[in-house]
Amino acid sequence: MSIPLDPDDSVVVLAHEKFPDRAKTAVGVLRYADYDVTAVLDRNRAGETVGDHVPDVRDAPIVESMDAALDVTDPDALLIGISPIGGGFDESWRPDVRAAIEAGCDVIAGLHFFLEDDEEFAALAAEGDVDLIDVRRPPADLTVSGGRARDVDAEVVLTVGTDCSTGKMTTTLELLTAARERGVDAGFVPTGQTGIMIAGWGIPVDRTVADFAAGAVERMILEAAEDHDVLFVEGQGTIIHPAYSGVTCSLLHGSMPDALVMTHSVGREAIHGYEDYAIPPVETYVDLYEGLAAPVAPTNVAAGALDTRTLDDEAAREAVAAYADTLDAPATDPVRFGADEILDALL
Amino acid sequence: MSIPLDPDDSVVVLAHEKFPDRAKTAVGVLRYADYDVTAVLDRNRAGETVGDHVPDVRDAPIVESMDAALDVTDPDALLIGISPIGGGFDESWRPDVRAAIEAGCDVIAGLHFFLEDDEEFAALAAEGDVDLIDVRRPPADLTVSGGRARDVDAEVVLTVGTDCSTGKMTTTLELLTAARERGVDAGFVPTGQTGIMIAGWGIPVDRTVADFAAGAVERMILEAAEDHDVLFVEGQGTIIHPAYSGVTCSLLHGSMPDALVMTHSVGREAIHGYEDYAIPPVETYVDLYEGLAAPVAPTNVAAGALDTRTLDDEAAREAVAAYADTLDAPATDPVRFGADEILDALL
Q1: Does the model's ipTM exceed the 0.85 cut?
Q2: How many angstroms away from the CA of A143 is the closest CA of chain B?
Q3: Per-residue pLDDT reduced to its tens digit, B91-132
Q4: Which chain A residue is nearest to residue B256, measuring alpha carbons?
Q5: Domain around A175
Q6: Do A227 and A334 share a structural domain?
Q7: CB atoms B291 and A291 under 8 Å
Q8: Is B309 helix (H, G, I), strand (E, B) or coil?
Q9: What is the CATH number of the domain that holds B62?
Q10: Do A206 and B211 touch (CB under 8 A)?
Q11: Pair B179, B57 in one domain
């Protein structure tokens, strides 16, 4: 999967009725993508601006529709920045997608529903010579892992976690930025739809055939290791997730990392959406990840990243210190305090 | 996936140039399926019989082609009982499949290549009103696991192992037979193509979307638990497999078993096909499987099954005793010595 966007391209991001708190992809792209976001579509917030809600990113107007966006910007693409439960296409978005294609914009989506399979969009896109880019469609030529990732020259760092949505992608991208600021030749290996949209390439590991999931990760590692000295690999799920642990396990054995960074959300006590499944002590996770890796490609938890957004600064500092104690490794909240303490432990 | 075969139906099994040693599916079906195998196709062994090679199963002629089989039997289906590396369709089989469809037989295959996608076969099958059954095609409506398997009333037993091809399916089916002989209402949950062909239903877990693998297992457990007191679940791969561990992990967390049976092949020292990956001591596997299950649905290795086919009887007895010592649990070779010792530990 490769997305035809350059750093000097610009996109409009669709986030109707969900910006910013339930628009994880939109906010991820605003914060981390190289290309510019020149408008956000949210019909509930038309007239406001991105800066009203997300500080520290380039500001942009929020408008009610693609037509309205085209009045104020000349984008290269429309990017779907939200995902309803189930990953379907919301029919209320159809006029926006239609307007984008008719204006010559590519459309980029990470839904389970594929834009390319929609007859109207496919016909319009063919007519207008624009691309419909479904980042969640895995390549057709995936195969089983050859067990080769442990032999690459690059240093491979994988983020793991105690649950889904504990900041694995965010931590990975903060580490990437901090490493590059130090002059390290670092690369990002994206494994989910938001990461792929940000990076412009990648394979959605959760959507591959189960037998090929580790092979998909391996393929990305071998490719990216040709170009970089250090690779930061976006983790997924958790090794004790009732539904997604297989994907997590495939990431661990497919990437064969030299070091792990353990992410956790402060105060989280049960698996998100599976409230009968308690989150065990973080030491249990350390033992499981390291134990499972050992016979395949030994690694260790070298640092921790704690999401402290629900705490004030002082409580956050205390929580980070306690987390570091428990892990017996350096830890921080990389969004709040920067990624340097983690990076020092890794490089 | 459901296969339209009843116990009084009969099938012809295709195993060209590979019967019996490289025809795992053919031999599995001969040994364990309820329906009758009335001929085997192997052009290298035409004129011999099944009984010349596989004792203890109902004898049948080996013939050179489907045409020759139709001279001596009136089957309901042709079943592809071998799988080339890569799971492709060998064009030398085309005349046999064509002859089967023209004779009104269904055709059952577990290849990565789907018969239904072959234009000639699809057209012939439509014309003749026969079914092309690709058991490796997962259902289209799979979804994520709800974490519900631990709540079923049935006792769930999962076979796990130290590698692929350590006897997980065989052990599962020997346990099923032995339990039924004791009058236990036991069911079989098939998770791979051979198991599905034997049972006539099931989902090929390795071929599902990675995010849905545990959900596919859960769906089968919930369904089968309605009908049985004990479920024997066919395991796949191993939790430290460089390529397939994600599938194994999804099976563990999707089935949430009450007990595990650890399978191993005596003398195996490295992962099959991944010779640089040593097989660690079996205690390591016990710790990993039990540790990984504990936070989700606690379980333990209650017994062991050792494949001793390379040893003589005395050496086999010694190997089984040593294996039981190491596991600190009862163990046997269920094919050689029967499954009773394992069953005693489980029920």
Answers
A1: yes
A2: 9
A3: 999 999 999 999 999 999 999 899 999 999 999 999 999 999
A4: A242
A5: 149-346
A6: yes
A7: yes
A8: coil
A9: 3.40.50.720
A10: yes
A11: no
